[in-house]
């Protein structure tokens, strides 16, 4: 492996003084459910340790991607950061304060868009902005909604309902809605996973453009190596589960603003890509082998 050592960092518990988000010794255990077998035998089903002892410090204005084999616990981790899922062990601190539930400081973009189907584009944004800022003047709310619809290139589609939009347009609404509440951190769980390759490519470039403008901290889950390399400052590579951990962290040094064609010319592009491919191949193969042996 020809990567310079500076591009790979071992996950460590070193605590940053400037971190915006600190994930410390975080573990998630899903309790075993009682089923007929456990009722008959009186034995409790075994708990499932999804992720174990995750440590990660995220600095402000960083774009971080999480990549790992399917089922390793990426969404579980993101949901804990979002405050949608409880933390079984350790703690997650935002600006030094423990996360105990969802909050407007974190905006979430879901793979399946999660829009209100009976609301228009504008109403979907309005609902989010009003919920978070109930005292804001109508004039300000209208301005924010308009700005964010324009930001994601949806001007003209304000009065359309989600069923009248393509998948790519729906995801633009999801991104606009998450950004309209002005979160400190944008959380995205496979935001382009449901889109065709071409639309996906366009939206990735849109996200890169928006990120250049706003430089918000972003944590994005993806299965795409190219997507992670285009957008991220750091790529967190998780091991397979159960008890998934962080295996390696890649630093992505490509200058910004980035374009797909130019980053592919960067001397480190192919080494980083190869490193990620071999990680994913190794972990996914181990999952498959474990499945066959069962
Ligand atoms: N509510 C739950 N109860 C029990 N087990 C769960 C629950 N949610 C997730 N799991 C288990 O935790 C593990 C991690 O799931 P998670 O959805 O976080 O994986 P993932 O990495 O996001 O996968 P994918 O890439 O397929 O989206 C899986 O084995 C899953 O079955
Ligand atoms: Mg997931």
Keywords summarizing the entry:
single chain, 294 residues, alpha/beta, Rossmann fold, seven-stranded mixed β-sheet, four-stranded antiparallel β-sheet, globular, binds adenosine-5'-triphosphate, binds magnesium ion, translocase, cell membrane, membrane
Quick synopsis:
By secondary structure, the chain is an alpha/beta fold. The protein contains 9 helices and 11 strands.
Structure notes:
The protein is built from 9 helices and 11 strands. It has 294 residues and is α/β, with parallel strands linked by helices. Strands 1-11-10-4-9-8-7 form a 7-stranded mixed sheet, with helices on both faces. A 4-stranded antiparallel sheet has the order 3-2-5-6, covered by helices on one side. Strand 8, helix 6 and strand 9 (217-221) form a beta-alpha-beta unit. It is globular. It starts with 7 loop residues before the first strand and ends with a helix. The structure holds adenosine-5'-triphosphate and magnesium ion. The site of magnesium ion has 3 residues, from helix 2.
């Amino acid at each position: 492996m020809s990567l310079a050592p500076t591009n790979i960092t071992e996950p460590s518990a070193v605590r940053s003084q400037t971190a915006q988000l600190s994930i410390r010794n975080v573990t998630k255990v899903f309790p075993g459910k009682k089923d007929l077998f456990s009722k008959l035998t009186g034995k409790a089903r075994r708990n499932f340790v999804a992720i174990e002892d995750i440590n990660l410090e995220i600095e402000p204005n960083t774009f971080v991607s999480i990549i790992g084999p399917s089922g390793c616990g990426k969404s579980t981790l993101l949901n804990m950061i979002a405050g949608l899922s409880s933390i079984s062990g350790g703690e997650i601190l935002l600006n030094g304060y423990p996360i105990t539930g969802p909050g407007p400081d974190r905006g979430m973009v879901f793979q399946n868009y999660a829009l209100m189907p009976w609301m228009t584009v504008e109403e979907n944004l309005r609902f989010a902005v009003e919920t978070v800022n109930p005292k804001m003047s109508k004039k300000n709310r209208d301005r924010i909604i308009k700005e964010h619809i324009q930001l994601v290139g949806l001007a003209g589609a304000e009065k359309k309902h989600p069923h009248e939009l393509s998948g790519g347009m729906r995801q633009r609404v999801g991104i606009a809605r998450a950004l309209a509440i002005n979160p400190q951190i944008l959380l995205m769980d496979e935001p382009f996973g449901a889109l065709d390759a071409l639309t996906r490519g366009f939206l990735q470039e849109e996200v890169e453009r928006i990120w250049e403008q706003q430089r918000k901290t972003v944590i994005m889950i993806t299965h795409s190596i190219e997507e992670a390399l285009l957008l991220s400052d750091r790529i967190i590579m998780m091991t397979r589960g159960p008890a998934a951990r962080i295996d390696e962290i890649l630093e992505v040094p490509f200058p910004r603003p980035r374009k797909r064609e130019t980053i592919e010319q960067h001397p480190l592009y192919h080494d980083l890509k190869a490193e990620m491919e071999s990680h994913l191949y190794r972990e996914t193969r181990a999952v498959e082998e474990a499945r066959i042996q069962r």
